[in-house]
Amino acid sequence: WRPSFVRTDAVPTSTDWIELVGFVLVFVLAFGTPALDAAGQPNAPFQQAIEATTGGGLCLWRRQLGFEGAGCGLTRGFVQLGHGQLVPALRLNPLTPAIFAWCLWHTAEVASFVLFRRRLRHGIPSVWVWRGYGAFFFGFAILAVYRLVLGLTGP
């Protein structure tokens, strides 16, 4: 496995720029949001305003059903990883480090294309890439079922 840059004649579109800005913004918010709120709990960008507006946070699943879904904790986990706190991020959502790493890689891919007109190739065979995506999907499914059972049966 050896990453490489490949020159391309393709021209970045406005969609490529928007994607780059969006991913960079995710990391700016992750690194720029304080790790803990005033009560000492894991924080998320604009968490207090969102909770006041929605009556319970970003997760529709948690607001409607009262327990966490598979994606709950990812935003707060990103902030924790942005501050180097691996264990709290894993407690919030065990898939956070893998998704954080994928987002870092994808940001590098998009940035290399938009800024330098080079494709960043990871060199991993396609079959293994798709197996990795399958593992992410399987991980989310297992986490969803686990949290559903836990939510329905109680703590």
Mean pLDDT: 90
**Count, helices:** 7
Span between termini: 44 Å
Number of E strands: 2
As a whole number of angstroms, the C-alpha radius of gyration is 18 Å
Your description of this structure?
By secondary structure, the chain is mainly alpha-helical. It has seven helices and two strands, in the order βααααααβα. The chain has helices at residues 14-32, 47-54, 60-65, 74-82, 86-92, 96-116, 126-153; strands at 4-7, 118-121. A two-stranded antiparallel sheet has the order 1-2. Helix 1 (14-32) crosses helix 4 and helix 4 packs antiparallel against helix 5. The longest helix has 28 residues, at 126-153. It is globular and about 55 Å long. The mean pLDDT is 90.
Write the layout of secondary structure elements.
Elements: E1 4-7, H1 14-32, H2 47-54, H3 60-65, H4 74-82, H5 86-92, H6 96-116, E2 118-121, H7 126-153
Antiparallel strand pairs: 1-2
Helix pairs in contact: 1-4, 1-6, 4-5
What are its keywords?
2 strands; two-stranded antiparallel ribbon; globular; 155 residues; mainly alpha; 5% strand; 7 helices
Briefly summarize what is shown.
By secondary structure, the chain is mainly α. It is built from 7 helices and 2 strands; from the N terminus they run E-H-H-H-H-H-H-E-H. Helix content is 63%, strand content 5%.
